[in-house]
Design brief:
The complex is a heterodimer of chains A (396) and B (345). Chain A is α/β, with parallel strands linked by helices. Chain A has helices at 3-22, 45-64, 84-96, 109-122, 151-164, 181-197, 215-223, 236-247, 263-269, 291-303, 306-310, 314-331, 339-347; strands at residues 31-38, 72-79, 102-106, 126-128, 144-147, 172-178, 200-207, 228-232, 253-256, 277-280, 369-370, 375-380, 385-388. In chain A, helix 6 links the parallel strand 6 (172-178) and strand 7 (200-207). The chains are: A alpha/beta (396), B mainly alpha (345).
C-alpha cells in the first residue's frame, strides 16, 4: 500500500473516530436513548407505573410521528422500588450500560436527591415532573429542571380558592399534617393562606408518618368545631381522615394537595370521599375538554391495554407533559443533538404550552423550577372522577 | 488424594489456613479482588461496592445471630445510626472520612449497648420484636431530631477522601471498602476462634449450660450486641459515602429482614457464608432485573415487575426450605463428596 493511500486511510479513520467521539451519549444517527427511574414495584408503584406508562405512550406516539428529527426514541426503564440507593444504582447502570442521553423519570423526592450528585457530575439533562421539593432546585443544578409547584404553593392556591370562590372566610380551619418534610410543606401553604386572609386557625394536628388511625385526631377536630380541614397526608391518610370525619358526622370541607387527586383515595374513602377538593397542577384524566388530556387519552387507548389504561392517574399526565417539554427541547436542536443544546433550550423556555396539561412553563438563567399554575378539582365519589372547579391560579 | 486434615502442633492448630490449598485459593482471591476494578465496568464495580458494604454489616449480624444465636431485626436501625453519624459529622462538621467511619461504628455500638441491656432476658420471638421496635424508634428519632438529623430532608454527604486522596469514583472507593471488608472478615474469624467466640457458641447452643460452666452470659450477650452493632454501623457509614445521601427512606424494616435472609441463605454462623449470602441475595435481584429488562415485551411490561419480586421471594423461601444449612452447607457437602470420592465418607 503506497504512502498516499495509507495517509488517506489514516485521515479517514481519524475523522470517523473524531466524529464518533464528538457524538452525544445516547444519540446515534437513528436513535435517542432516554432513561426513566420509577418505583415500579411495591406500594409507591401507584405513582411509578402510571408515570412509566405515560412515557411509553409518548414514546410510541413520537416514533409514529417519525421520531425527533428522524431519530427514534428509546426509553430505558429502571425500577428503584422507591429506595434512594437503588435509584442511584439504576442511574449508574443507565449511564454506563445503556448510555442514556437524558433522564425523564426521576422517581420520588429522596430518590432524586440521591441521584442529584451524579446528575450534576455527568451533566445529564434531567426533568423532574413527579415529586417537587425545594432541595431539587434550591440551589439549582445546571442540568436538572423541575416542573410543577411545591406542596406549599399548591395548598396556598387551594386556600385562595376556598376563601375567594367558596367564601369560606369565617370557618374554623385546621390542618392534619405528617411529621416530615412533606407535611411541613403542606403546612407552609396552609399557614400562608391563614395569614393572607386572617383565617381562624383552631387546630394543627401533627401525625406520625405511616399512621393509620386518626380517630383521636378527628375527635379533637370535632371538639374544636373544625369546619375546614387541610390534609397533609400522602395517599391513604386522606381517605382515613375523610372516613373518620364521616363517622363523627362532621360537616367538613376538605382540601388536599395533588396526592389526594387519585382514584384509590376515592375508593378507600367510599361515600365519605364525595366532594373533597384537591389542588393540583394537572387536570383530571376525565377532563376531556382539555385538549391535552383528550389527546393523551386517545393515545393511551391506542397504545396501552385496558388494564394499563386503568392504571393511569394524574402522574401519567404529569409524566406525559414532562416528556412533551423534553421533546420540544430536543427537537429545537435539529440534527446536532447535544446535551448542552437541550439544556440551553430548556433554560430558554418561556411560557411553553402543553395543550392545557400544565400551565405555561418558564425557566431562565439560573432558574430551574417552573411552578406552573394550579387548579382545584373536586371529587365525585359516585363515578370516581374529578372535576375541575377553578380556573388556573398563578403561583404566588 | 488427601485423607484428612491433621494438625501436629499448636501453631498448626491455631493457624488461619488449614492446608496449602486454602492458602493458594486465598492468595488467588486476594489477587482477583485487587484486580477486579481494572477489569469490571463502573456500574458493576458500583454493584460490587454495594455488596461489600452489605457484607460488612451482615458479618456483624452473623456474629450476633449466627454465632451467638440472638435473633435481631434491628440492623436497619444500626445501619441508620452509622449512616447518619457519618453524614452529620462529614457534612455539617467537615470531619474527615477516617474519623467518620469509626465514629459511625462506635455510635452504633453505643446504641447496641442500649438495645442489648433490656434484651438480656429475652429470647427468640420476644428478642426479635424488641430489636424490630428499635428500628422503628430510630426512624422516629431521626424524623424528630430535625436540628441534628435534618429530619426527613436527608443529608448529602461530601465526596469520600482519605488523607488527601479523593475516592470519588466507584473504582477508587472499591479499595477502601475492600480493605474494611478484609478487616471485618479477619476480625470476625479471630473473634470466633477466641475465648469470646467460644462463649458466643456456648450461649447459642445452650445458654443455661454455658452459665453453669462459668460463662458470664449477660456480659457476652452484650459483647455480641456491641460488636455486631459496630460492624453494622461501619457499614452504614460506608453506605453514606457510597450513595452520598442518607434519608430514612433508605433504612426500612425490609433491610433487616433481607439481612437475616442473607445469613440464613449463606449459612448461619459462617463468616464466608455471610459474604456468599450477600452475593447470592443481591446478585439474584440484579439478575432478575437484567433478565426482565432484556426480555422486553410482556415480561418487560410494568405489570410483570411484581412477578420479579415474587420470584425473588420464592427463591429465598425455597432455599430456606430445602437447604437450611445454606450455601456453605451445599459447599461442604460437595467438598466432602469430592474429597472422599469414590467413597461416601
Amino acid at each position: 500500500m503506497n504512502w498516499f493511500l495509507k495517509g488517506t486511510l489514516t485521515a479517514t479513520l481519524l475523522t470517523m473516530g473524531g466524529v464518533g467521539a464528538m457524538a452525544a451519549p445516547g444519540v446515534t444517527e437513528d436513535k435517542i436513548v432516554l432513561g426513566a427511574v420509577d418505583p415500579l414495584t411495591g406500594p409507591p408503584s401507584l405513582l411509578g407505573k402510571a408515570h412509566s406508562l405515560a412515557l411509553k405512550v409518548w414514546q410510541a406516539d413520537v416514533n409514529a410521528r417519525g421520531g425527533i428529527n428522524g431519530r427514534k426514541v428509546e426509553i430505558v426503564f429502571e425500577d428503584d422500588g422507591y429506595v434512594p440507593a437503588r435509584a442511584l444504582q439504576a442511574l449508574k447502570k443507565m449511564v454506563e450500560v445503556d448510555d442514556i442521553f437524558g433522564l425523564i423519570g426521576t422517581s420520588g423526592s429522596s430518590q432524586l436527591a440521591a441521584m442529584m450528585p451524579l446528575i450534576d457530575e455527568i451533566g445529564i439533562p434531567a426533568l423532574n415532573n413527579m415529586a417537587v421539593n425545594s432541595h431539587h432546585f434550591n440551589p439549582p443544578l445546571e442540568t436538572l429542571f423541575v416542573v410543577g409547584p411545591t406542596y406549599c404553593q399548591e395548598i396556598a392556591a387551594g386556600m385562595t380558592y376556598l376563601v375567594e370562590e367558596l367564601g369560606l372566610k369565617d370557618e374554623k380551619y385546621a390542618i392534619a399534617f405528617q411529621d416530615d418534610e412533606f407535611g411541613d410543606d403542606v403546612r407552609c401553604g396552609y399557614l400562608k393562606g391563614i395569614e393572607k386572609y386572617g383565617l381562624d386557625n383552631v387546630l394543627e394536628l401533627e401525625f406520625k408518618r405511616g399512621q393509620k388511625d386518626f380517630s383521636a385526631e378527628m375527635l379533637k377536630a370535632r371538639a374544636a368545631g373544625v369546619t375546614v380541614l387541610v390534609s397533609g397526608g400522602v395517599v391513604a391518610e386522606h381517605s382515613t381522615l375523610l372516613k373518620e370525619a364521616a363517622k363523627n358526622r362532621m360537616d367538613i370541607t376538605f382540601l388536599g394537595a395533588h396526592s389526594a387527586h387519585l382514584t384509590p383515595v376515592q375508593a378507600l374513602a367510599g361515600s365519605a370521599g364525595d366532594g373533597y377538593y384537591a389542588a393540583d397542577y394537572v387536570p383530571a384524566l376525565t377532563s376531556l375538554e382539555v385538549s391535552g388530556v383528550a389527546r393523551f387519552m386517545d393515545l393511551a387507548n391506542k397504545y396501552l391495554s385496558e388494564s394499563e389504561v386503568d392504571s393511569l392517574n394524574r402522574y401519567a399526565l404529569a409524566g406525559y407533559a414532562g416528556a412533551l417539554i423534553f421533546e420540544h427541547a430536543m427537537t429545537e436542536c435539529g440534527e446536532d443533538l447535544t446535551r448542552a443544546c437541550v439544556i440551553e433550550n430548556l433554560e430558554n423556555l418561556d411560557g411553553f404550552e402543553t395543550d392545557g396539561l400544565l400551565g405555561p412553563v418558564t425557566y431562565g438563567e439560573g432558574v430551574r423550577h417552573a411552578p406552573t399554575a394550579i387548579m382545584v378539582l373536586q371529587s365525585n365519589a359516585e363515578d370516581k372522577t374529578f372535576s375541575i372547579v377553578s380556573e388556573r391560579m398563578e403561583v404566588e | 488424594m488427601r485423607t484428612g486434615v491433621i494438625q501436629e502442633s499448636y501453631s498448626e492448630l491455631i493457624s488461619l489456613f488449614r492446608n496449602p490449598t486454602q492458602t493458594y485459593w486465598t492468595v488467588a482471591l486476594v489477587i482477583a479482588s485487587l484486580a477486579a476494578p481494572l477489569l469490571l465496568t463502573n456500574h458493576v464495580t458500583s454493584l460490587v461496592n454495594g455488596m461489600m458494604i452489605a457484607a460488612v454489616g451482615v458479618i456483624g449480624l452473623n456474629l450476633l445471630t449466627g454465632t451467638t444465636g440472638l435473633i435481631s431485626f434491628g440492623q436497619a436501625g444500626f445501619l441508620a445510626v452509622g449512616g447518619y453519624t457519618a453524614a452529620i459529622l462529614s457534612a455539617d462538621y467537615g470531619m474527615p472520612l477516617w474519623l467518620c467511619l469509626p465514629a459511625g461504628g462506635l455510635m452504633a455500638a453505643a446504641f447496641g449497648l442500649v438495645v442489648g441491656i433490656p434484651s438480656l432476658r429475652l429470647k427468640g420471638l420476644y428478642l426479635a420484636i424488641t430489636t424490630l421496635a428499635f428500628t422503628i424508634i430510630i426512624t422516629h428519632i431521626i424524623l424528630s431530631a430535625e436540628g441534628i438529623t435534618h429530619g426527613s430532608s436527608g443529608i448529602s454527604t461530601p465526596k469520600p477522601a482519605i488523607f488527601g486522596l479523593e475516592l470519588a469514583t466507584d473504582k477508587s472507593f472499591y479499595y477502601l471498602i475492600l480493605a474494611i471488608l478484609t478487616l471485618a472478615v479477619l476480625g470476625s474469624a479471630n473473634i470466633k476462634r477466641s475465648r469470646i467466640g467460644r462463649a458466643f457458641l456456648a450461649i447459642r447452643e445452650q445458654d443455661i449450660a454455658a452459665r453453669v460452666m462459668g460463662v458470664p452470659v449477660a456480659r457476652y450477650k452484650l459483647y455480641a450486641f456491641v460488636v455486631s452493632s459496630f460492624y453494622v454501623g461501619v457499614a452504614g457509614a460506608l453506605m453514606a459515602y457510597h450513595i452520598r445521601f442518607v434519608n430514612v427512606d433508605g433504612f426500612s424494616l425490609v433491610i433487616s429482614i433481607e439481612a437475616v435472609s442473607m445469613i440464613i441463605v449463606g449459612g448461619l454462623g459462617s463468616t464466608a457464608g455471610a459474604v456468599i449470602g450477600v452475593v447470592f441475595v443481591l446478585g439474584l435481584a440484579e439478575i432478575l432485573n437484567y433478565v426482565f429488562g432484556s426480555m422486553g415485551g410482556t415480561l418487560g411490561s410494568v405489570s410483570a415487575m411484581e412477578l420479579k419480586g415474587f420470584i425473588y421471594g420464592l427463591t429465598i423461601v425455597l432455599f430456606l426450605r430445602f437447604e437450611p444449612e445454606g450455601l456453605m452447607g451445599i459447599y461442604r457437602e460437595y467438598k466432602n463428596r469430592w474429597v472422599n470420592w469414590p467413597f461416601r465418607y
